[in-house]
Design brief:
12 helices, 5 strands, 57% helix, mainly alpha, homotetramer, 270 residues
């Protein structure tokens, strides 16, 4: 059956014949393999043209910043999944990536959309970035929505990754309107939201990448791609030094059953 | 409950405190972000130490070679999933990666294990690589198992990506025993299996990476990581030029229902 | 690290010891296995107590209604995934379920929330269901949001599954305020939205189940559980009569590459 | 491109037109919705014809037996995923199902194949079930492969679910050759493997269902379908009493970092 209104049966990413593979207009084998880095290729795949040196360095910096942060929930889910299903590494990676959501890891996307909204509000109303940011932040507070990309459970004073990414953006001359917006938001938060919330890596990534010309709608791809590398490291370790079931046992032991039970029943799951 | 025999509650990838994040012994923010490429970081995460220049170039070449090959089944699954569930880009990427299996895309892992087995057989029996390869290939033929990493539905004469990766391995001085084994297998296949099957990208990746010192058990991570970049490009395009439902309609139209139906029933799903 | 504000380390679903497994207060082996149907058990797991006969029949009817509708996108994604990764049936099922999203299949959840909002608006404002429905529908039109659970690409005149589910709810004496709301919305749509959109199965499921006492927040579980049964049927067939790659080839052939290519390049992917 | 040798573009599960949906030859709306239970429908979808009463009761019993066993790894992965990505219940269910693998939960499939192999060995060699089981068990011991469906981390004396399923198969008159094989294997294990391993639910499910006429290749669907119901219960609870991040914190706290770190670095992730 025909679902929806899609009507343009085209794609512009890759085509091939038995001898040649063309990606974004380039001959993959003759001009890309061996000639460019994976980061440059990622930019090409996503943005449609090769990055300049600044863009490449900015994307590299964000991917390195977000790829790994220890035994976070998505890594635990992936390692537990591999322990149960060692025949399918792809399933364990998938289980890990499914935790790149709106609450953790996936906030790069919503944070980038928030910065765009502030930029457009400033432009539409002819007001300053500060006035536009204040207006939108007040809206978030009224709706009790969390400000995406601000605050961190561990790095409360500041998120060192965010600070470093903004410093690199300045060094490279990439920093522009989105970095300005991001810092303005951080400055306004204590008064408007009522407590300080520092920029975390998920607001730093979109502001430096949007300033570098990376597409807004592909922002979620950055943590997803980066974490895949982290997950592969963890899943290799899980094959040689397994901890998936140890973590699972500890997690289960931390939770108590408080539902009904027949008289005399004594739980003992160990 | 305690499942299995896991007993060493350790990981050696990442630790942190509020100011500092340590990855594989390095200070993430001070020494890695902005200093190394994502490919170097991937090698560090997986192998535990930073790659040298040859290793980095070899990994870059394999990631670029495998990341994208048009509207393959896994890309279709991902784009259809995003069309149905636009709220969850992570779900669409996961759906795409779940198709990196033993039949397509995931063969890097099994192909690498096959080369290792040949290497170990030659060592154990004191025979030549050729004799060992012949012995194992005959075993595959007897069990009618496909030889992992050989043959390609489109690139029948030769897979240009495989040829290029081996050339790069030679240029870099990386090519060694695993490349030799891979080419020996290709040479023996016509006689032993009964028809020519060319090395495809999934046998080229393991032989050049194993020769470069990349860990065998992380080989499946290479197509998984690379394809994530390809999927992000496709999912960005799907958001702006959707084809997920067009592809689905064409796929459904290619299949006929041949089960029972009440008399007089006329199918019409368009 | 401690993420978020979770502080009550409890669950009330299942506990056990080596001899006994307790689910929702019942002895699983002595009182449930062999005594109740899977549908009754699903209700118990989700709602916390066993259903009465009407509730059981209503849930059975919705699960049967939504489980299968041929080669829809999620089934295609699952069958393509199995063709590529036959070693992991669980991955193919997961790929299929990831397409139960906000656009197709997953609308039971949003449709149920929409009905609840209308019910609460009527109560809060002391107005009629009709007035409340009209107010919310006008809001959807202004924001150009699709009305969840109305309209169907194939069943344009009426969705026979929706009609049947409402008839069963009436026969069982289950139909109440949510069914009334659902039909009121259908009646108002032509005038407010500007064209007729019939109730589809994704609005019928929430209205009959909410009237039966099924929890709103578990509504998405109904299509997810039901489709799992459909997917298992398809994946069994895929193992014996594979069509995953045939569908993929047809889907790819329906899309043309319209990006740049080197002069003289002729695509030929067949 | 054309992958593989698929050539029969048919499916025999479902067809439709705007008024009617046909499933396995039946009119879905007129003859199935409201008339049969979800378990009967599952059998129809999978096996192609409606079950008799014994088959229906046997399938119900297995689904109820395996659906829920507390905070097992797959449930933890699902709840952590929902905590991180509350926008995508389908992603959390998928993450949970990806843990139905060869080590836990997914063994119904491999156990069923093991019983078939014993049955076929007995037939081919004209030997007794006992002799055939002994031969195959010795093969498992030599290859140090675990016997699928035997042994349980919690239920060491006996798995009460397995015992109950076999009793039901006897009561219904369903028990046949596969139940005999399963018990023979249990009896032989202490001598051949060297320690007692009781039948667990993953060997009980295939023997009772194969005896009832359920298709071998769809056995993995039983735990997958059943656990989906369990997961939906847990994900509803996670929305109202979240424990995903509590479990994650406990799991992380159970693991120590034993890799290198700069001098003076003190980990403190709490």
């Amino acid at each position: 059956m025909k679902i929806g209104k899609q009507s343009a049966p085209y794609q512009a990413i890759c085509t091939s014949n038995p001898e040649t593979i063309i990606v974004r207009g380039h001959d993959l084998v003759d001009n890309l393999v061996g000639s460019i880095s994976f980061t440059e290729y990622t930019w090409l795949l996503v943005a449609g043209s090769l990055p300049d040196e600044k863009q490449r360095r900015m994307l590299d910096a964000t991917l390195v910043a977000i790829a790994e942060h220890g035994l976070v929930p998505s890594v635990q889910a992936a390692r537990m999944t591999l322990a149960a299903s060692p025949e399918a590494v792809q399933g364990a990676v998938a289980a890990g990536l499914l935790g790149c959501g709106s609450v953790i890891l996936g906030a790069s996307e919503t944070s980038g959309a928030f910065f765009r909204d502030i930029r457009e509000e400033a432009k539409a109303s002819g007001s300053s970035v500060e006035a536009a940011a204040e207006k939108l932040l007040r809206g978030y507070r009224e709706q009790k929505k969390p400000v995406p990309g601000y605050g961190h459970p561990l790095h409360k004073g500041h998120d060192p990754r965010a600070k470093r990414l903004l410093a690199i953006a300045r060094e490279l001359g990439v920093a522009g309107i989105h970095c300005e917006i991001a810092k303005t938001v951080e400055r306004l938060i204590p008064e408007i939201i009522g407590r300080p919330l520092v920029m975390n890596v998920s607001s730093a990534i979109p502001c430096v990448l949007l300033d570098a010309g990376y597409p807004l709608l592909a922002l979620k791809g950055v943590p997803l791609l980066a974490r895949t590398a982290g997950l592969i490291g963890h899943l290799l370790e899980e094959q040689t030094r397994p901890i998936g079931f140890i973590m699972s046992q500890a997690a289960a032991a931390a939770i108590e059953y408080d539902g009904p039970a027949p008289e005399g029943f004594v739980a003992n799951e160990n």
